[in-house]
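User: Could you walk me through two proteins back to back? I'd like the raw sequence and the structure tokens for each, with a short line separating them so I can tell where one ends and the next begins.

Assistant: Of course. Protein one, sequence then structure:
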Amino acid sequence: MISDVLLGETQKDIRARTIEFVKSIPTSLLLDMDEEKVIYPKEFLKKAAEYGLLGLRFPKEYEGKGLGWTSEVVAIEEIGILGTALACLYSLVSIVGEAVNIFGTKQQKEKFLKPTIQAKIATAEGLTEPRGGSDFFAATTTAERKGDYFILRGQKRFIVGGEGADYFLVYAKTDKNAKPHKSMTAFLVERNENVKVKHIYGLMGTRGGGTARISFDDVKVPIENVLGGEEGINRGADVFYQMMIPERMTSAAGALGMAQAALDIAADYSTKRKSFSRPIKSYQGVSFKVAESLTELDAARALVYETAQAIDRNEDAGKIRRLVSESKAYATDMAWRVVNNAMQIMGGIGYTNIYPIERLLRDTRLIMIWTGTNEIMKLIIQHEFYKEVSERGIERRDLEKDAINSDLEEEKIYE
């Protein structure tokens, strides 16, 4: 694969270990999740921990491996072969772990991050609300301070892992009079009798991950569970902006695996299936779809891995925002196109449950929507690009002068 040239020995070892982990997952689990016989597969995370695959990016003192994004992308890409639900449940350790690792107190890292990486407890993120989607700051969940604790009230929905989580990263309004980006606080909310699963969603795909609507009915949250402690009050926006990296990078990496799975199935089928006494791969209508799919997959993979390395190099924040958004939008769009190509190659049998293509199709439809729709990604991409253009000036040639009448300034009318 194209990513081989981008990886060191550590990453290649992680890939080999993840491949073995993925091979160990029984088909029955995938089928039971898709049929909603399994609502939340706790054993999956425990097995991932046994393989040493959880918390790859986090410090060793909290049971992590002290590695970077490149290593994590390797693992998530392989786990993505299993579909969106399991890739997401695996990624929640990284997503919520990012918040605790960067913003949490030492006590919070010991209490939440370490056992999450050990798969002793499970986590989920409470971000989206019934009345909000892309507009994060329109949240209506509130937390009112009462001395050394807060009273949390509100609801969050579309929480993957909500059914099985032991604690939630929850954003709530804590200062109704402040500007939006100064009004929110992030909390680590432990499940209790006032944290209630109100609904388990029936999803088109991505089933079995316990995607739920959760209500917080006068939940008492102590100050020590404010992410970052006392200093974290009204700093929820800082957490939210940082979280866009793990949420979107994990989606992009998982999309690579799903696309690879669909392409492998279709390519194998095209070598076996015959039409007019010839394998269908010998027809350009089929083989060109394979070529186009592989090209798009390699291009997406190169972008995602370069973005991972840019994060690991700690490059400019604006550039990282752009690259992360490009990775999420392009990789998820790519996966949708590749899975559709795979189904077209396979014809009618691809539309049945004889092959897992139809399940992959249902799974990949969601990843263009969650963690920020791909339309929102494009808003961020163009915003950061125009900002770069305005700040960098002319680094290369002055291209406007490469025209025969470039000196006719009176023709260059902009208003």
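----
Protein two, same layout:
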Amino acid sequence: MDWRMMLILGMALATYFTRVTPFFFHIRQYRFLKFVPASVFASLIFPDLARSVDNLIAGLLVFAVACKNRDLLVAFLTGVFALYLLKIGV
């Protein structure tokens, strides 16, 4: 059997296993899954925030506005505007 075919079958089994596993266990054992979206989002934005001081300041401002207002649209617009002002040097 070719190594490519073995790789494809192995990945298919791994994908199948991850999708079928929750059905074999009690669903209460998977309470940690509610934290997955937040952790994935944090892992996506952290490298960009650490890239420059402007990005970090805008990110902290977005976090503060989002925590205070609980409105993601206002937080998003605040971040875009803050980053724009920081990048043009005002």
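The two ends are 63 Å apart (CA to CA).

Let me know if you want the two compared in more detail.
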